[in-house]
Every structure is written in C-alpha cells, then in structure tokens.
Amino acid sequence: MSVLWGARVGLKPMQDPITDAEIGKLYRWSRDENVLRWSGSTPTDLTFDEFRARLRNEHASSFDHRQTYLILTRAGELIGRIGCFAMESNEGELGVVIGEPSAWGKGLGREAIQLLVKQIFETTALERIFLYTFPENVRAQKCFAACGFRSLGVARRFSPDLGEFDGIEMEITRQEVNLPQNHTETHGNISKAL
After folding, report:
1. pTM above threshold 0.90
2. C-alpha span between 110 and 120 (Å, rounded)
3. Which CATH class is domain 4-193?
C-alpha cells in the first residue's frame, strides 16, 4: 500500500514494512511518560528486542478489524501513530498518539485525524467512529471537535493500566461528514467500498 497524503502529513499503513528506525521511535514513545500520560497507557517494561518482536508479530496478524497507520511528515519524519480499532457492528474506535513533542500544537494530529476519518468512511461500511479522552484533556477535545467530533458526555471506562476511570466520549458519523452511504462488498470481516 502507499502512503495516504494530506497537505502536511501522510498515513503509512502498518501493513507496510516497518523499519528498525521506525520501531526505535515507537519504542521510545512507549517508554515516555509525557507521551503516554494522555493516552491512558503506562511505560512498557519490554526490552527493545521484545518490543520489536511483539510489533512484528502484531504486524503479521490480521487487520480485519482495524486500520492502523504511522503518521509521517512530508519530509518523511515519523511523528505518531493513528488507527481505528474494533471495527465491528458499523462502528470503530479512534486512537491517536503524536509521539514527537516537536510536532505538538501544530495541527498535524488534526490533519491526520481528518485523513483517517475520510479514509474509513470512504473504504468501509462503518457509520460511526467514536473515541474517549480524559475529561481534563481539553486540548484533545478541542482538536477532535475541530475535526467534527461531538461530545456525548462522560462514560465509565476500563483500562488494564488504569482500572476504571471516567472518559469523555466523542463521535462522528458518516452522515455528519456528508459522505454517501456506500454500496459495499465484504472482504473478510470488513466491508470495503466498491
């Protein structure tokens, strides 16, 4: 697959080969408390070799219920990752991390989210994309709102790292982005647009 480009960022499918340099950045982010703080994760205790093996194993596994991408700048710099997960029952959950602090606050995450939302609604039969963010993460909520997501209020969530916590649920629907209902053909468990 090729990179899906926007004006300033591109989405490289995780199915494509991942270089050791890219894995090195992903590993660094997986150990950085400042990066992980807002995603509800805790730093990994895996060694680099264990992390690489796990990532390569995930890479070889099925992508039937998810679309995941590396976020690249036009210069080819890896700055984050994004995906839509648990894509079943006409909906999927968005997850995004901008791992490079130098890329924060520049609208690059917003552009990546907009690219992903358009890609998902154009290539699948999903009708709704939702996400959760911490109530105090106002910056993320503003970013998602600028991408067309609307708040549904507080919802109780569970994370293996954090246990139970309150999250702000947000969503965007196919109808809200004015994309027509696709005629679809099913490939595996994901419906792809014709």
Report:
1. no
2. 15
3. alpha beta
